[in-house]
Amino acid sequence: MARQPSTKQLSDWDRKYLWHPFTQMQEWEQEKPLIIEKGKGSYLIDTDGKKYLDGTSSIWVNLHGHRHPALDRAIKQQLDKIAHSTFLGLSNPPAIQLARELIRIAPTGLTRVFYSDNGSTAVEVALKMAVQYWQQRRPEAGSKNTFLHLKLAYHGDTIGAISVGNIELFHTPFKSLLFPTLEADPPYCYRCPLSLTYPSCQMACLDPIEQILKEHHRELAGFIIEPLVQATAGMITAPPGYLTRVRELCTKYQVLLIVDEVATGFGRTGKMFACRHEGVAPDLMAISKGLTGGYMPLAATLTTEEIYKGFLGTYADFKTFFHGHSYTGNALGCAVALASLEVFGKEKTLARLQPKIKTMARHLQPLWQLPHVGDIRQRGFMAAIELVEDKETRKPYPLEERVGHRVAMEARSRGLLLRPIGNVLVLMPPLSTSLPELRRMVEILQASIETTALLPASG
Ligand SMILES: *Cc1c(COP(=O)(O)O)cnc(C)c1O
Asked: What pLDDT score does 455 carry?
């Protein structure tokens, strides 16, 4: 193999040839890109050999750390057999075994696995399955072909996924392409849309949702929700019992419950899936990010036997689910996903995570004292700090101030990589993070907030 070009050369080529996701390239071109060459455990290592703590699990995907021996081995062993063969008309051993394992650990009632390759496609598949299900299985229910979702929802970046999403900044240019949906306010307690306080509110934000379901259930194929934590919205955590009520309402009004566990799945909330906290049985579930332990792009949409049966018939009935991707059921991805699930068993990942969750909460506690920390939200091993210009009035910083970004740059210079969402700093390290690493992350986070000049905006 040719020798790797110098960091300088790579930097130049990066700025000359690449277009990075969610990145203002005009600014990127002015900066020196951080080029990651290696990883080990909770650390990422750049081309100059500098080490950084991976405070976001490489944007929410990594679970057991980088270069985990069992995961590395699984890919190498699979590679000695075959990297990929199509799933259209053929099957393969790791995809079959992984499906069996996923159904074993999935929330009650989910019995079938449909693979794709990223979170957005897993969501698209769920939406399409829901719509086609109603047409074929329950034609008497009428044309149920739209969806209810929460404001500030994020379900991916493809057109269908953004149709059921609501992040103004990301979605505005595409408004004209999106299909119509119904929206409801999220349980954003820090900025309660009803100006109430939990628990005395008794989750009054569910009343308008029931109203929408009551009025529109004949048009609604499903209600799609990020269970327990609306991650991209800034880790908006739903109060306990909220998801249970959503399930009850969906059942009452015959609307499918689609849970998007792309961010919350695989232990992030402290249990394997967020639905498990409330014993909720969804009709469809999208998973991706943590599925392969952060190694390979792979996703799946899980559903019930009831929905699956809606697609059965002879070929001539044309009830087939006509959907698939070139890399569906990729053997390398499935092999490493299987290895990741094995690690959960062997290393008792979830049991060992519980004290870490408590430690994270304890370390974050003192940050409440900082003058610009408005809210700290944590669910399991997912945490967010919302910075505000005025703590008293909860006035947000204008986005153009880029306070989150500025704190993250400070943290980077101190050896911690973060990726904030606007004014919200997210801490979501690998589940395997050690207690000293966790302490170090929060120390750097605190110092970075303290030293970044977070002044009230001028004027
Ligand atoms: C990241 C994310 C997605 C999109 O997944 P991609 O793999 O980036 O397409 C969908 N839903 C949720 C909840 C996510 O966090």
From this structure: 67
Q: Chain-centre distance of CA 106, in angstroms?
A: 17
Residue 295 — φ and ψ, nearest 5°? -95, -45
Domains and CATH numbers, the chain: 34-64+349-452 (3.90.1150.10), 73-346 (3.40.640.10)
Q: Determine the residue of 56, 232, 269, 296 to mutate for testing ligand 1's pocket, defined as the one with the most ligand atoms within 8 A of the Cβ atom.
A: 232
pTM exceeds 0.90: yes
Q: Sheet containing 220-225: which strands, arranged edge to edge?
A: 110-116, 299-304, 284-287, 256-260, 220-225, 146-150, 182-184
| Per-residue pLDDT at 459 | 38
Pocket of ligand 1 (CB under 6 A): 118-120, 123, 154-156, 226, 231-232, 260, 262-263, 288-289
Q: What is the pLDDT of residue 167?
A: 84
Alpha carbon of 275 to ligand 1 centroid (Å): 17
**HEC states along the chain?**
CCCCCCHHHHHHHHHHHCCCCCCCHHHHCCCCCCCEEEEEECEEEECCCCEEEECCHHHHCCCCCECCHHHHHHHHHHHCCCCCCCCCCCCCHHHHHHHHHHHHHCCCCEEEEEEECCHHHHHHHHHHHHHHHHHHHCHHHCCCCEEEEECCCCCCCCHHHHHCCCCHHHHHHHHHHCCCCEEECCCCHHHCCCCCCCCCCCCCCHHHHHHHHHHHCCCEEEEEECCCEECCCCCEECCCCHHHHHHHHHHHCCCEEEEECCCCCCCCCCCCCHHHHHCCCCCEEEECHHHHCCCCCCEEEEEEHHHHHCCCCCHHHCCCCCCCCCCCCCHHHHHHHHHHHHHHHHCCHHHHHHHHHHHHHHHHHHHHHCCCEEEEEEECCEEEEEEEEECCCCEECCHHHCHHHHHHHHHHHCCEECCCECCEEEECCCCCCCHHHHHHHHHHHHHHHHHCCCCCCCC
Atom of ligand 1 nearest to the CA of 231: 15
Q: What is the mean pLDDT of each run of 10 residues along the chain (459 residues)?
A: 89 98 96 97 98 98 98 98 98 98 98 98 98 93 94 96 90 91 97 95 97 98 98 96 98 98 98 98 98 98 98 96 97 98 98 98 97 97 97 94 95 98 97 98 97 65
